[in-house]
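Thread: zinc ion complex, take 2
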Amino acid sequence: MKLRKVVEGLEELYPLWLKEEWDFPGLVLGDGERECEKIFFALDPTEKTALEAREWGADLMITHHPLFFRAVHRIPSTDPHGRVASILLGSNCALWVGHTNVDSSPRGTNDALCSRLGLLKTKPMEFQGEVNGLPAGMGRVGDLEREMSLEEFAGLCREKLPKTVQGAKMAGDARMKVKRVAVMSGAGDSFLDKAIDLKADAFLTSDLRHHPALDAIEKAKALGKPMGLVDVSHFSSEFPWFDFALRDIENKFEGLVECRLCSLYTDPWSGIFI
Ligand SMILES: [Zn+2]
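Output below.
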């Protein structure tokens, strides 16, 4: 099947209109007229993941994170991003990025997080519209199957999400009761206020910094509805998307494509000392 047909199908599952304004997901490298059968998935387009895609003979690599975040004026192979581009172009492997459009889409990164944690009655934190009859938008809010302490919820996150050296960090009263949970895959501190507005008992996200975390806890307490925070690694908050993506894309193209997940973990952290 032609690459452009594969891209059309991908963008039916994860429409580009759902992307954030600053983001540029979609086809980054590749010729739409080439045949595409082997699709390789990785969270990050790095030299090692690109080499694994090349070794398998991938026609298309799908990553969640963009290859280029900012305007680019040159891509020599001495530059880390240029190196990835030259490996992929040199082996006729295209690159399609599903970033914030995948975060917001049904069965994207946020739905996958909810599924791992067994959240029920989930809906977007910020509704953007419908995709294939399902609500789409950033983040999710839903209920745990049963009420538990914040400490137990943090333990559940550590147990159910991909293992990284960070594990799960918790902020707030360990014994507070948690039932209603807001989640935001990736760096979610811009949604702390929204989680408070939604009266979440706990907010799960990644990359939380000192001041926003402290301010959110104090603000929720001052409003009379304390909220706990759980911070996991950026990698483990997004990697669960592949639970859905490989199956959904194979189903979409009804056996015309073969999918494989990268064997490498691209979490940058290799140790923690406490
Ligand atoms: Zn991310």
